[in-house]
Amino acid sequence: AKQKGRGRVEIFDESLSAALEHRVRTEQDLRNAIQCDELVVFYQPIVEADTRSIVGFEALVRWQHPTRGLLAPDAFIPVAEESGLIVPLGAAVLLQACSQLSQWQRERPGCERLRMSVNVSALQLDHPSFIPTVAAVIETTDIDPASLWLEITETSLVADVERATAAFEALHDLGVGLALDDFGTGYSSLAYLQKFPMQALKIDRSFVDRLGRDPEAAVIVEMIIGVARTLRLLVIAEGVENEEQADELYGLGCTLYQGYHFGRPAPAEKQWQESGTSIVA
Ligand code: C2E
Ligand code: CA
Ligand code: CA
Ligand code: CA
Questions:
Q1: pLDDT tens for residues 13-42?
Q2: Tens digit of each residue's pLDDT (9 = 90 or more) over 119-134
Q3: Which of 3, 50, 58, 135 is deepest in the core (most CB within 10 A)?
Q4: How many CB atoms lie within 10 A of CB 230?
Q5: Ligand 1 pocket: which residues have CB below 6 Å?
């Protein structure tokens, strides 16, 4: 029994050190990637429910890894957060997304009021460089601050309410829009939501996914939309994959959609190619 136990400990140690090695290598590669422009920003359209026209995009980062191929955020955002690299990574994404927005607004007729949503981690929000970075990016790219939306998860607000409130107020003063991401998956109360100067709620994909199959999901979505109405916030449903979901969401009062049904995240040069999409000014 003793021998067996020791064997197991060794196996455990080996897999642990392999995992550690993988993590350390990923961190080194990521540091390099940020400097070498290996990060690519994909864009996914956000459409208006009534007209189905594109009103904005969400910027979603990818990593064009030299040997591992195109990596999704799940493969490296956690490492970026643990190592603090999320701060320079986030700044690089913000600059790239706002530069793209600025170009589309200038060059595409009818796109003057197009919006860009950028995801922000709790760690970025907490970092003293964040507000100056946002201000500098707005300045450099010469965009209207109101056309930039920052998406912040519900859970990142709960971690430190005081700090989050201060950051929200500073961003609000800059004139940027604020959206609460993955809404419904955390624990914020109504009263608590009222404390933050925000303009939109994003209904988490998990609820949209359950629509049509689970009557409870419809009740939750309806409640979220009710909350948004009360607080005069926009609602964006994420993960809309088919017309049935879009229909049901419309019936529940949702006004903005995002999901594979309207467009998958894709590089900037792949946008605006479908003939059916139009723009509202
Ligand atoms: P999120 O902010 O909730 O973004 C939505 C995710 O849902 C994206 O995954 C998107 O590709 C995916 N999605 C959109 N429509 C559909 C659909 O119809 N069906 C399905 N099944 N999925 C859909 P992605 O691009 O893999 O990003 C995952 C998460 O990584 C994001 O979740 C966000 O939390 C994080 N992330 C992405 N880019 C950044 C970034 O630049 N900075 C930070 N801090 N986080 C980021
Ligand atoms: Ca998001
Ligand atoms: Ca989500
Ligand atoms: Ca998320």
A1: 778 888 889 889 999 999 999 999 999 999
A2: 999 999 999 999 999 9
A3: 58
A4: 11
A5: 44, 60-61, 72-73, 77, 90, 93, 119, 121, 151, 181-182, 205, 238-241, 259-260, 265
Backbone phi, psi, residue 180, to 5°: -90, 120
Atom nearest to 73 CA in ligand 1: 30
| Residues 202-234: tens digit of each pLDDT | 999 999 999 989 999 999 999 999 999 988 999
For this complex, say whether ipTM is above 0.85. Answer: yes
Distance of CA 158 to the CA centre of its chain: 18
CB atoms within 10 A of CB 88: 17
Ligand number nearest CA of 182 is 3
In angstroms, rounded to a whole number, what is the distance separating the alpha carbons of residues 193 and 277? 34
Write out the two tokens for 102: 């600025």
Distance CA 271, CA 153 (A): 26
Q: What pLDDT is recorded for position 142?
A: 98
Q: Is the pLDDT of residue 80 over 70?
A: yes
